């Protein structure tokens, strides 16, 4: 299902389901490229110069501790796979552990580790369905949606009742706004995994179709259907309930559900970022600083820290935004392009560059159409005073009837501006900008 987090990894499923800008700071390369302009460096030469620690006691980066049970579990699985390198089951267990841990800490490197583990079996003439689904999940994590779909199709040819494949396909359809297809996928989830998972799938889908009240009821059914489900499942359902409550503007219920999810998975990066967004929307940035204090290595969490610093007018706000710009540039240099929504938000709220934000948000909209993607596009179009640039999103929202107390006022403002636009005006993409 769609993760309730609203982050760059919004589409990822848990493994238990899948087995500070200075005044002179210039636009980062990724932003300049979105405008079709010559890329400008994100940071100055001083930042680019090699850094030499003042002493051996200086901490440059924190790495996962061997005392962490999850790290110990991955290490144990790695040793066991090394001892039995042809054990597919062990390889898939290790790959799932890497995917799950990467999701928890917000580090995409672990998806790469998982990919390397299953590579020999993926190269086989007829890969097992579970191998194909695991690789599809990794591609989905990277927002390579079409290759992920192709692998899921192959997996379902091998095993038509593979519940994980149907869940992942439903996720892709929801994130990309194909709700009719998602409904069919959810029906297949029920047939292959049982009503409990079917309720969760359908309840999540209803929250995007103007039926959030019905969605909440279905999600409550999914929550109570079986008390013996894994902790990860219960946290996932609480997160979906929080998202559905936000669609209805029921802030107390949403907060209750976020807290319940985080009580079960206190260090889950997706849940932490989603709750941080909730707190920012509620005008509670000080709480974000405490919530994410130990998660600064996650890029998505760091962006929320930067937003909270700016909202509070903290002395370090410019440094946070500068470092965030450098992180985006580093991602662009690595070829990672699945942060479109976060980049657009950064350009709009921290760099105060609505045109770049609009260009990025429109490009992102071509890839994914979750509520946060629509919200960022609408906000950017308003800030750039180009309402017609969001016309596609407005038509999509008309069609889907999304309920959202934050998005709906944006829609009304943009529709009013579209109606008052000069006759013959066209969206930027059609006007040859």
Write structural notes for this entry:
With 433 residues, this protein is mainly α. Among the domains are: 284-333, no CATH class; 339-433. It is 65% helix and 0% strand. It contains 23 helices and no strands. It has helices at 29-34, 45-48, 69-83, 88-105, 109-122, 129-141, 145-158, 163-175, 179-193, 195-206, 212-224, 231-248, 251-264, 269-281, 285-291, 299-311, 317-334, 340-349, 354-365, 371-383, 391-400, 407-419, 428-431. α4 (88-105) packs parallel to α6 (129-141). Residues 1-47 and 428-433 have low confidence and may be disordered.
Question: Which key phrases capture this entry?
Answer:
433 residues, disordered N terminus, 65% helix, globular, mainly alpha, single chain
Q: What's the arrangement of secondary structure elements?
A:
Layout: H1 29-34, H2 45-48, H3 69-83, H4 88-105, H5 109-122, H6 129-141, H7 145-158, H8 163-175, H9 179-193, H10 195-206, H11 212-224, H12 231-248, H13 251-264, H14 269-281, H15 285-291, H16 299-311, H17 317-334, H18 340-349, H19 354-365, H20 371-383, H21 391-400, H22 407-419, H23 428-431
Helix pairs in contact: 3-4, 4-5, 4-6, 5-6, 6-7, 6-8, 7-8, 8-9, 9-10, 10-11, 11-12, 12-13, 13-14, 14-15, 14-16, 15-16, 16-17, 18-19, 18-20, 19-20, 20-22
Helix content: 55-70%
Ends apart, CA distance between termini: 37 Å
Low-confidence runs of at least 5 consecutive residues: 1-47, 428-433
Determine the number of helices (DSSP H or I, runs of at least 4 residues). Answer: 23
- Mean of pLDDT: 85
**Number of separate strands:** 0
